[in-house]
Structures are given as structure tokens and as C-alpha cells.
Amino acid sequence: MMDFFNDYRKLYLSALGLFVLLTILVAIMPAISNQNNNSPLPTEEALSDAALEGKAIYVANGCVACHTQQVRNLDMDKMWGKRPSIAADYADEERTDLWRNTATLMGTERTGPDLTDIGNRQPSAEWNLLHLYQPRAVVEESVMPAYQWLFEEKAELEEGDVEVPVPDAFRKGVIGKIVATKVALNLVAYLQSLKQAQLPEAIPAPEFLYKREAKTTATAGGGGDLGLDGAALYAANCQSCHQASGAGLKGAFPPLKGSQIVLDDNPEVLIDIVMNGYDARPEFASMPAIGTNMNLSAAEVAAIINHERSSWGNSARKVPVDEVQKIMDLLKQTAKK
Amino acid sequence: MLLTTSSLFPSAAYAQSGSTGDGGLFSLPGILITITLLIIPVVAALFLLVVKANALFRNIQNRKDSEEAIRFAAYLKSLNVDQLGALQKDREHQVYHLNNQELAGPFSPEDSRGLLSSINEQANIRFIEAKRKAIVRPGIDPALSRLILWFLGTATFWLVFGTSVGEYVGIKFVAPDVDQVSWLSFGRLRPVHTNAVFWGWSSLAMLGLGYYVVPRVSNIRLHSSKSGWWSLILINASVVLGTIALMAGINNGGGEYREYIWPIQLLFGIGLVITLVNYLRTVANRKTTEIYVSNWYIVAAVMFAIVISIVAYVPNFQNGLGETIIQGYYMHQGVGMWFMLFTLGLVYYYLPQQLNKPIYSYSLGILAFWSQIFFYTLIGTHHFVFSAIPWSLQTVAIVGSAGMIIPVVSGTTNFLMTFRGAWHKVAGSYTLPFFIVGIIFYFTGSLQGTAEAFRSTNLIWHFTDFTVAHSHLTMYGIIAFFLWGGIYAIVPRLTRQEPPQITVGIHFWMAFIGMMFYTVPLMWGGTMRGLMWMEGLPFIESVTMMGPYWLWRAIGGSLMWVSHLVFAYNMYNMINPRKTVNINDTAIKKLHANELVDIHDK
Questions:
Q1: Where are the domains of chain B?
Q2: What is the pLDDT of residues B538-557, one digit of tens each?
Q3: CA neighbours within 13 Å on the CB side: how many for A286?
Q4: Which residues 6+ apart lie within 8 Å of A246 measured at CB?
């Protein structure tokens, strides 16, 4: 046996052969089969030109180092999408150009949030631009880099310029107006395009595994809140704009503290805005239809609005879940008409 | 311990679904393994602590003894004349000695053959153990020697550069607004750091050490030192260009460690092919019958690295999930089949050489070789457990990860048994401590990888900083420490100049302690973070929670970084020719010069 391995050709060729054989079996063949046997979902929208350019910016700046784009089939990943990601979601990813490989951008680290469905979760262009200019202006605890070189300073706005309402504390000696460059707008277009496509009815969504044991809560009395944590839901869905203090951001996001709509005894308008968005006040950015996008249940909406109605000095009547459910059903009907 | 934990594997490794069980965190095999693995370095540190405490205790004992002496002196003062006289006599008897001249007479001895030389009457600083000097080895071809020194020198540059970038990137976790320059932004610098320490530092240092080992164990000169220079130039060029491209925002698409675009990585690949031909020719012409096991590992590693690069850059199977599957394969084969396999080959040479005894078992080395190829090749996709890639492929990767126990345990056993009966040499050597740390982390770091691959633990640790800690425990704890051991072993032999022992000690301890400060907080924080995610807490809370752990990481990283500056200083001391004036030689030269002038004048 040792004689066999004393011949350097036999030794190295057998090692190389084993390695190449295994490589073909566990890497190349699965890769080819996955590449050939999956096609994009019919519901998936192709990227616009702006979004494609934005993707190149995303790649160039190594955003994938901190942001994943995969919803795993785990219960804990539910907050990042409606369903686990499947092979078809990535099937339209192809080689970028002669110089660069395919950018599937699944990522291996989640220092920041997953972005698979960010286009539904946070579609507001105003928020995204401000967040890119200075993440800490909207999320105080963020450790994301600021991408200020994607913006320019101008004395006067020109036709088509998008100004970013940066709070004074973060302007750092900038006197003029802060305007988003084309590059920043493209990047935001890419982020807005990141939406999980609806599965066709024929395909069942994979299950989320390792389910968290439902908290057993004593729901005393009818219309209980099912033990949902309103503050946590608010933090996950609303806080990045309206802030933990409920004070919003001047010139960008309205305050909820002392807001007539929030405090109104009849919560219909409030629930309508949570579910379907709002763009009636020119001095503020438009609000996305966060409730519909995130598929919030009546219990979750109730927990959120009750948190808003009872925090920061707000004190309004607690809205029971059945009442929220009724209003949500009503809103759906009117929407259909 | 291993047996008991391994009996738990099947249930965890193959579990397809279900909750994490009733016993809580501490019933998970992965967690148990990790805790055990963590305990090993801690025990080693505790052992050191005991040794130090022992010294302290002796100190205290000495102080007590001197107090006792004072009391004794007071007692002596109280004695009367007769008693004192008796004591005096006693003392005279005790101190009487022969004067050593009873036989030789009054003449002083003469060392007519010059047997006694370089008597050192001044010892080293008291609290540092004096280490043995390197033994002068048979001469090495100066051309080869120069080539190796250039490989190691440029490697050192990339270590200092790459970890300076790493240090800066680590600081950005704590101070994200430290700058706002596009070329220095986090996402661009992170791959600059990883690629510089991979392809710059580790690869160049490995190849340089390999250029020493391959011809030496073949008992023949290197086939061609000239082509070695091409390798050196191409690889350095690849890292320089890659660094600039990444900072300018030109990268290959976001797959880790293949961020260099293909024209740049191609330079690296050509460098490897040139080296492979050179190594193969050298082995083919060897003067030994057998191919020493080092050359199994080293040549195989270069071949595999070329295969891996080709697979990673050929575009035909990289669309959609194909890219992800290849990425998983590539990033892990790069680590296991290039860095680990090559470095193991180096250890099979340098460790026995430094211990001056043969490797414990040749067959164990060969078992480790084949089992490493067999299992390691399978494990790539364990980076994408629970992702959209096929579940069966994930399971293969997890099983392969468990199989890694075979090569790791046989390798570790082999190295430790080689130490058997030679442990006393550790205290007197400045290279062996590096090898010991490398061996400890080869065992703990590699098995930690196995522990992380189980579905139950992947659940908690995937996507968190735990992975970052793991990659530093392995690429730094194993690879870098082994490379330093090898460098300190041969450079003094090539240049006949030794580094100052005290700065080698500083390098060792700062790197080791720094790495522990770097990794342990990240592992702890990463675990907490994973648990927070599983509880469904708002994401930003897990970011705030990580703050202190990131700070500790930056502190540990700083220690590591300073240790690299010390290492660079040591390299300088070993390589830079010291201009010391030998009075005698210079005087004689001067005499000759004068004579020549005199002759000409006449």
C-alpha cells in the first residue's frame, strides 16, 4: 500500500480525484440542478432600471455584510416575511456582468435587520433617505454607517430635487439644503422593490419550524389583548418613524403624543391609517399601509393602538379587540366597493 | 466526555422539526460541546495561574521566614559568654572547607584547549525564563533563503495592514460615525480586512514556510527559486489590486472571501499554479523513497485551492441558488482545504523538528489526511442551514460536520503524543508555546464548528457574532499561531539572527489574551442575541444589548493588533542585518588595507 503512495503521481491524483468527485457531488451537481429546476414566481415583479442600479450600489457598498435577504423556515424569522423564502425567490438572479458574479445576497450575518421584505415593511422613501443620510436621526441606537456621500449640499433646490429633512442635531455644519443624489434615489428604489412575492395558490408555503410556545395568558374578560406586548409591536412596526418618545420627527413624521387622531374616542380613523396608510398632510412624509403590508391581526392592531393611546401622557379609552375587528372588517368592505 | 456527547448526536443532527426540547439550553449537545471546548483554554489559563500563585506563596513564605530570623537574632542576643563560645566553635567546624589547592598546588589552572567559551556571567532579566537559542542548521541556499524571507516579510506587512483595517472596522461597531468617507465605510472595509489576512498574510506566510519544507523533506534543492518569485509577485499584486478595488466599490457580488473580481483573483490563481508546478517537480525529483506526510498535505492543499477557485469563478452554475450552494462550498473549502490542510502539513514538519523527535504516528497523519478530504468537502452548505437550499443537502453538510471529529481527534492526538516525554522542552523554547496554542485551538475551534452545525444550535447562533468569534478562534487561534511558530523556528536559522526573547514573549501573550477577550464576549453576546431573536423581541433591542460585547471585542482586537506590531518588530530584528563592529576583525582588516596601500606607495 505504501508503495502505491510512494509514487507521487498516484498519491496526488488519487487525492485530487477524491476531492473533485466529492466537489461534483455536493457542489456542482446540486448547483446545476437548482439553477435549472427553479423558475421565478409569476407574481414576482422584475426590477426597474432604477432598482437595478440601486442593487449595484447595494453590492458595491457591501450591505450584505450586515443584512441578510433570506427568511428561514424558523418561527423566529416570521418577523422578516410572511413565509419562508423558497428557491423560486432567487431564481431570477443571474450573472451581473462580464466582471461580476451573480449577487444572490442571501448573506450570512444579521448585524442589521433582514431586508427580504423591507419594501413592504418600510416603503417610505422619505424615511429611507433620512435613514441613509444618518441612521441615528431616526433610530437612535443604530450602529449602521451613515452614507452621507450619497447626498449633496445645495443652496437652492432645483427642479426635481428631493430634499431630505435632516434634524438640526445631525446637520453638522451643513447650512444649505441636503439633497439626495440619483445614486441615493436608486438605492432607495431597490430597497422599495424588495418585497416577498405572493405564492400562487397551487404552491403551499413551507412551514415555519421550531414554533415558539404560545404564551399562556389569562385573558380575563371578553376582548382581552391575548397577552400581546403593545410596546414591542410598536417598537417593531412604528417606532422607526414615530420614535420611542411618540414625538415623531419635525418635518418628517408627525407626533402621536397628544395627536387628536390617536386620542379620538372613536378609533376608526386611527385604525384606517394604521391599516391603509395616510398622505393628507404635505408637511409630513406619507405613511405606508403598514397594517396591510405586515398582515397585522386585529389583536395586534389593538395592542399597538392601545399602547399609543396610553403612553407619553396620552390617555384615551382602551379599545377592545372585537371593536377593532369590526372596524377592520368594515374597512375591508368599503375598500372592496 | 466525547463519548457521552457523541451519543446525543443523532437525535439532534437529524431532527427535522420540533421544538428545542424541555431540558432547556443545557441539554443541547452543541451547547454542551461548546462549553466543554471553552473550558479547555480556561483550564490551561488556570494552570498558569496556579503556577504564578505558587510563586507568590513562596514569596510570602520567604517574608515569614525573615521575620522568624529577626526573632531568632533577638534570642541570640540574650545568650551568655559560655553559650556563645560553644556556638562559635560549632560554627568554625561547620564552615571549614578544603581550599581546592591541596592537590593542584599554588598555580592557577590553564584551559589550554579553549574548552570554556562565552561564559555568561550576567543572566537575563530575572523574571523571564531564558530560552534556548536556535541551533545553527546546515546552510540553506541563499537564493531560496531570500525568497522565503520575502514571502514572510510581505506576509507580515499584510498582517499588520489587514488587522489595522480589522481593528478600525471593529471600532466602527462602537463609534459608527467615526468617519463618513465612502472608501472607508464599513461594508467596503470588512472584505478588505478578511481578504488581506486570508490571501495576504496567511497564504503568503504558508507558501513561504512551504518553500522551506517541501525541498527539505524531499532532501533536494527547490526545483526553481526563480518561479517562486513570480508566485510572490502575482499574489502580492492580487492583494494590492483587490484591496484598492474593494475600497473603490468594485466587488464580485457579495459572496464572502470571493469579493475580488475574477481578473484580480486570477493573478492569485496563476501564482498558485506556478507554486504547484514548482512543488511537484521538487517532490518528483526527491532523494527519499517515501513522500513525507508534510508534502501530502502541502501539495494537496495547493491542488485543492486551485480547484476551489475554478469552481468558485466559473459562471456556468452560478444563477439563482446555484450561487449560494457554490458559495457555501467555496467559503468552507477555502478555509479547510487551503489554510487548514496546508498548515497541518507545516506542523507535521516544524513540530517534530522543534521537539527534535519524530512524529508520534505516521499512520494517524495519513488517516487524518484522507478523512479530512472525505468529510470536509461535504460541509460547505452548513452556512445556509434553514435557508432555501434543499433540506437534504443541508443534512449532508451537518453529517459531514459531525464526521470532522475523526480527522480533528486523530490530528490532535498525533501532535500531543509527539510532545510526550518532551514537555520539559516547552519552558526553554520560544516557538513551542505557539504550537501548543495552535493545537489547543485546532481541537477546540474545529469541534466548535461541528457543534455550531447542528440544527438545534444553528437556530441560536446563526447570523450572530458567534460566527465571527468562531472564525477568529480558527483562522487566528489555529492558523496564525502555527504560522508564527513556524516563522520563529526558521527565520533565525536563515538569517542567523534571533529576535529579542522578551518581545517574542510579549507578542505571544498579547495575541493570546487579546484573542480570548475578542472571542469570549462575542460568543456570550451572540448566544444572548440568538435567544432574544427566538423570543421575538424587537430587533433593535438585540443591537443595544450587543453594545458592551462589541466594546470588549474592540479591546481584545486592540491587544491582538499591538501584538502584530511587536511581531513586525521581531521580524525586522531577525531579518535586518545588524551592523555590529567586531573590533578584532576590523582591526585586522585595517592592517591589511594599510599594507596594501603601503605596497602601492612603494
A1: 142-583
A2: 899 999 999 999 999 999 99
A3: 10
A4: A255, A256, A257, A308, A311, A312, A314
pLDDT band, very low/low/confident/very high, at B263 (cuts 50, 70, 90):
very high
**CATH 3.40.309.10 is the classification of domain B142-583:** no
In a domain, A57, yes or no: yes
Identity of the amino acid at A234: Y
Q: Which sign does the torsion angle of CA B311, B317, B318, B321 carry?
A: negative
Q: Nearest CB to A106: which of B190, B191, B324?
A: B324
- Cα–Cα distance list, B221 to B215, B272, B287, B567 (Å): 6, 20, 10, 29
Q: Does residue A119 lie in a domain region?
A: yes
Q: What are the chain A neighbours of B374 within 8 Å (beta carbons)?
A: 18, 22
Which amino acid is located at B383 in the chain? H
Q: Are residues A281 and A326 in the same domain?
A: yes
The DSSP letter of residue B478 is I
Q: What is the count of structural domains for chain A?
A: 2
Going by the DSSP 8-state scheme, the letter that residue A176 receives in this structure is S
Cell of B139: 546552510
Q: Å from A102 to nearest chain B CA?
A: 6
Q: Are residues A291 and A185 in the same domain?
A: no
Whether A13 and chain B come into contact, CB under 8 Å, resolves to: no
Total Cβ atoms within 10 A of residue B87:
12
Q: How many CB pairs under 8 A join A and B?
A: 275
What is the distance of C-alpha B34 from the center of its chain? 21
Residue B597 C-alpha cell reads as 596601500
Measure the CA–CA gap between A28 and A154, rounded to whole angstroms: 52
**Is the distance from CB of B15 to CB of B437 less than 8 angstroms?**
no
Rounded Cα–Cα distance for residues B52 and B55 (Å): 5
Kindly give the pairing relationship between strand A177-180 and strand A151-154. antiparallel
pLDDT band at A175 (very low <50, low <70, confident <90, very high): confident
Cα(B255)–Cα(B167) distance, integer angstroms:
22
Burial pattern A171-202, b for ≥16 Cβ within 10 A else e, equals eeeeeebbbbeebbbbbbbbbbbbbbeebeee
Q: Is position A8 within any domain?
A: no
Lowest pLDDT segment from A187-196, B33-42, B281-290: B33-42
B155 vs B152: CA distance, rounded Å:
5
The boundaries of the domain holding residue A295 are 230-336
CATH of residue A72: 1.10.760.10
Same domain for A238 and A109, yes or no, is: no
C-alpha cell at A39: 423558475
CA distances from B70 to A123, B56, B59, B66 (A): 84, 22, 17, 6
The dihedral over CA atoms of A59, A64, A67, A71, expressed in degrees to the nearest 10, equals 100
pTM of the model: 0.83
The one-letter code for the residue type at B580 is T
Q: Are A73 and A211 in contact (CB under 8 A)?
A: no
Count of CB atoms situated within 10 Å of the CB of B514: 21
C-alpha cell, B260: 475580488
A205 touches chain B (CB under 8 A): no
**CA dist., res. B351 & res. B361, Å (int):** 13
Q: Is A174 on the interface with B (CB under 8 A)?
A: no
